[in-house]
Amino acid sequence: MATTAAAPPQTRDTAAPRRPGATRRPVHRTFYLFLVPSLVLFTLAITLPAIMGVTLSFTDSVGFGEFDFVGLTNYVAMVSDPAILSSYGFTIGFALVTVLVVNLVAFLLAVLLTSKIRAKVALRAVFVLPMVISGIIIAYVFGFLFSNTLPRFGQAIGFEPLASSLLANEDLAWLTIVFVTAWQAIPSALLIYIAGILSIPGEVYEAASMDGASARRRLVSITLPLVAGYVVINLVIGFKNFLNAYDIIVGLTNGGPGTATRSVAMTIFSGFTGGDYAYQMANATIFFLIAVVLAGIQLRATRGRSGI
Amino acid sequence: MPSQPPLASRELTRRSFLRGLGVAGAGAALASCAPASAGSGATEIIFYQSKPEVIGYFDDLIEQFHQTQSRVRVRHDATSNLAGSFVRESPPDIGLLNYNFEVSRYVERGVLSDLSDIPAVERIRDDLQPLIDVTATYPGRTSVIPYSLMAAAVLYNREIFDQHGVQPPTTWQEFLALCETLAAAGVTPIYSTFRDPWTIAQGPFDYSVGGMVDTAEFFSRLKEAGVDVGLDHSVSFQEEFLEPVERMQTFLQYSNEDAASRGYGDGNLAFARGEAAMYLQGPWALTEIAKSNPDLDVGAFPLPMSDDPDDREVRVNIDLALWIPEASGKKEAAREFLSFLMQPEIIDAYNAAALGFGVTTDAAPVTNSTLAELREYYDRGAFYLGASQLVPQSIPLQNYTQSLATGAEPERVLRTLDADWARLAFRA
Questions:
Q1: Is the ipTM reported for this complex over the cut 0.90?
Q2: What's the angle, vertex CA B365, arms to CA B359 and CA B369, rounded to 5?
Q3: CB-defined contacts A:B, below 8 A
Q4: B230 and B311 part of one domain
Q5: What CATH number should be reported for the domain holding residue B70?
Q6: Could you give the number of structural domains in chain A?
Q7: B287 and B362: one domain?
Q8: Do B285 and B418 belong together in one domain?
Q9: Are B299 and B372 in contact (CB under 8 A)?
C-alpha cells in the first residue's frame, strides 16, 4: 500500500498571513472554457434535479401524473411523523457512535502500524482490505454470521445474550450496524492517520527522547497534537458519511426489527419506491440543509488546519 | 458482443480503437432495431411483466401471439424501473403486474387508460369488483382488468398431520388445541420467518385480521374518515385490530425457536424438509418448496379465527392485472395483445400453470391438489383482501408486524398505525 505517497499537506506550517502572489493578474478566457464541461454536467445532473425536487416537495406528486400544490403541508406533517423523527434520531446517534469507534480504533491501529514492528507493510495491506469490498456484500456476509454463526456460538458457551440473533433484537440491532460499518470504514481513516503520523518529522521524537519522554508521553504530547488536523478531517468526513448510511443497513437489518434501524436515507428512498415522492422530497430537502450546515462546519474546521 | 474480428487483429492505435468502438456501437444499435423492422409495417409494443416465476412462460405466449398474426410485435420488458418509465413519460404500452398499493398510484393519478369497452371485461367475476375498488379507483374508468388471483392460507404437511392423527382445524379453539398437540409430540407446529417482514404481514397478520375483520368494509370506512382516525373516532386500528393482533401473538408462540433470524428462503427449505407441520405462506411458496422436495404432500386450510366454522375465509390478492397507460401511443396494438391474453384457453392455461385462480366467470376450476382444498371458499365468495395490501406503502406496516411478531405491545403499535393513517390523510 502506498503510505508515504498518500501524505497530503503538512500539518503545521508557519502560515503567512497573506499568501504569496496575492496581486491578481487577469485570467485568460480559455481557463474559463475549461470550466464549462463540469459546470454543464453539474447543473444538469445535480442542480436542476435538486431544484425540481425542492419544488415537488410543495406538491402531492407521486413522481408522475396529476398533482396539486399543497404548500407546506408535507413539512408540517413531517415534524410530527415518528417514522421520520426516529430515523433522524437513529441516524445521528449511529453516526456519532460510529465516528468515535472508527477514529479510536483507526488511530490506535495507525500508531501500531507506524511503530517499529515486524511486517508492518504487510499488516497495513491486511487492515486496508475491507475498503475494497462493496458494502452490500460485507453486510450479507456479516448478516449470515450474526443470524447463524454467532447464535450457535452463544448457545455452545451458554452465554444468553448471544444465543439469539442480535439482528432480531430491537434494542441491540444497531450495535451490529455500528460494528459492520466501522469494520468497513476503519481502513480509510487508518490510511489518513498513517499518513499523518508519517508526516511528523523524526527530529521531534529524537528531541523528546533525549529529554527523557516516555513512549506514552510522546504519544500524548507529540503524536496526538501533531495529527490533530487529521483527526478533525476524519471526524467531520466520517460523520457526514455515516449520516448517509444506507447499503450496510439494507443488507443487515433492512431497517428492522420493526423500524428500529431505519436511517434517513432509507426513509427518503422509500418515498420513491412507495409512491410518497413529494413527502420524502420534503424530508430530503431538510436533510440537505443539515448536510449544508455540516459541510460549512467541515470547511471551517479543515481550513487553516490543513493549510489550504 | 457482436463479433468484430478486425478489431483484435488490427494494430490497436487509439484512433482505430475508437473507430472500432463506433462500428460496434452502430452495429449493436442496428441489431436492436432489427426485430421492429422485420415484419414490414408491424407495430412494436412493449409489454411489461416482471413476476420472476413466469417470465419464460410469457415469452412463449408472445411467440404464440406472433404466430397468430403479423400486425403487432411484442417486446417483453421484465427489468425496467416502472416508476421511472412513468416519470419519463415513456411507460410500456401494456402492463401485467401485481395489483396492489404500488399500482394503485398509477390508477389514482389517472395515468392508466379506460378499458371498459373491451369485451373481455364482461367476463370478469362481479365479486372481484370490490377488491379492485378498495385498492384504487379513478372516476369513470376501468383502469385494470384482473388476470390471475392467488388464494393464500395455512399450508400444512399432510404426512405430519396423518402421523399425529390430527385434522385441519375449523375453529380458533381447535387451532390452538392442534398446536398444543403437535408441540407436545415434539413437532414444531408453525414455521415462521420473522427476518423477512413481508412474510409476517402477508401471512400471520393478514390471516388473523382477515379472519375477524371485514377488510374491504373497514378500509372504506377508514378512507371516508380521513384524518378522524383513532380511539376517539368511529374507526381505528386500535379498536378493531387489537383482538386479531393479540391472537396472532398467541399462535406465533408455537413457532420455531429461531424464527427471529430465519427468512423466506429458510422457511421454504425447512418446510420442505418436514421440520414443521404448518407454514403460513401463499401458493407462490409451493413451487419453491417443490424445488427442494417435489414429493412433499402439502395441504391448505384457511386460518380459523372465530368459534364459528362458517367464518373461515381465504386471503386473496389480485396477483396479476392488465393495464394500458394513457401515454402509450399504440393503444390499439396493445389492446389486440390484451384480447389475445384474455382468450379463455390462454388465461386458463396460465392460471393452471402458475397456481392461480381464474378471475372470469367461465374460468376452469383449479386442479392442484393443495389449492383444491381452498376452491370451495373461492367459489362461494368466502374471501378477503389482505389488510397489509391495503395500507399505503409509506406506512411501514410490514416492519410494524415484525415488531408485533417479536413481542411488541399491540396497543402501542396500533396507536402508531392510527396516527400514521391520520397523518397520511392530512397531507393527501
A1: no
A2: 120
A3: 111
A4: yes
A5: 3.40.190.10
A6: 1
A7: no
A8: yes
A9: no
Whether residue B24 is contained in a domain is answered as: no
Count of C-beta atoms within a 10 Å radius of residue A229: 22
- From CA B106, how far away is CA B277, in angstroms rounded? 40
Note whether B162 and B98 are same-domain residues.
no
CATH code for position A208: 1.10.3720.10
Residues A275 and B394: their CA atoms lie apart, in Å, by 7
CB contact (8 A) between residue B396 and residue A83: yes
Q: By CB neighbour count within 10 A (0-12 exposed, 13-18 middle, 19+ buried), where does A67 fall?
A: middle
Residue of B nearest to A62 (CA): B105
3-state SS of chain A? CCCCCCCCCCCCCCCCCCCCCCCCCCCCHHHHHHHHHHHHHHHHHHHHHHHHHHHHCCECCCCCCCCCECCCHHHHHHHCCHHHHHHHHHHHHHHHHHHHHHHHHHHHHHHHHHCCCCCHHHHHHHHHHHHHCCHHHHHHHHHHHHHHHHHHHHHHHCCHHHHCCHHHCCCCHHHHHHHHHHHHHHHHHHHHHHHHHHCCCHHHHHHHHHCCCCHHHHHHHHHHHHCHHHHHHHHHHHHHHHHCCCHHHHHHCCCCCCCCCCCHHHHHHHHHHCCCHHHHHHHHHHHHHHHHHHHHHHHHHHCCCCCC
Indicate the Cα dihedral angle B96, B100, B103, B108, nearest 10°: 130
Is the minimum CB–CB distance between A218 and chain B shorter than 8 Å?
no
Q: Which of B326, B343, B369 is the last residue of a domain?
A: B369
My answer on whether omega of the bond before A257 falls inside 30° of 0, hence cis, is yes
Q: Are B130 and B209 found together in one domain? A: no
In a domain, B21, yes or no: no
Same domain, B271 and B415: yes
Q: Do residues B305 and B208 make contact, with C-beta atoms less than 8 angstroms apart?
A: yes
**In chain B, how many domains are there?**
2
The residue among A280, A262, A285 whose CA lies nearest residue A63 is A280
pLDDT of residue A21: 52
Q: What local confidence, expressed as pLDDT, does residue B25 receive?
A: 52
Q: CA B400 to CA B418: how far, in whole Å?
A: 12
Domain that holds residue A151: 70-302
Per-residue pLDDT of chain A (308 residues; tens, 9 = 90+): 334 444 444 444 444 455 555 567 778 888 889 999 999 999 999 999 999 999 999 998 888 877 889 999 999 989 888 889 999 999 999 999 999 999 999 999 999 888 888 888 888 888 888 888 998 999 999 999 998 888 888 888 888 778 778 888 888 899 999 999 999 999 999 999 999 999 999 888 889 888 888 888 888 888 888 998 899 889 888 998 999 889 999 999 888 788 889 999 999 988 877 778 899 999 999 999 998 898 888 778 767 554 43
- Facing A73 at nearest CB: one of B392, B420, B427: B427
CB contact under 8 A, A270 and B419: no
Q: Quick one: B74 and B162 in the same domain?
A: no
Q: Does B408 touch chain A (CB under 8 A)?
A: yes
Distance from CA of A293 to the nearest CA of B (A): 28
Answer whether residue B19 is part of any domain. no
Q: Are residues B180 and B299 in the same domain?
A: yes
Q: How far apart are CA B180 and CA B184, in angstroms?
A: 6
Cell numbers placing A41: 454536467
**Is residue B23 scored above 80 in pLDDT?**
no
Contact A66 B106 (CB under 8 A): no
Among A91-105, A214-228, B207-221, B319-333, whose mean pLDDT is lowest? A214-228
Residue whose cell numbers read 403437535 = B182
Confidence of residue B105 (pLDDT cuts 50, 70, 90): confident
B403 in a structural domain: yes
Distances (CA, A) of A297 to A15, A92, A245, B40, B381: 21, 16, 20, 64, 63
Under an 8 A CB cutoff, do A272 and B396 touch? no
What domain range is B213 assigned to? 152-316+380-427
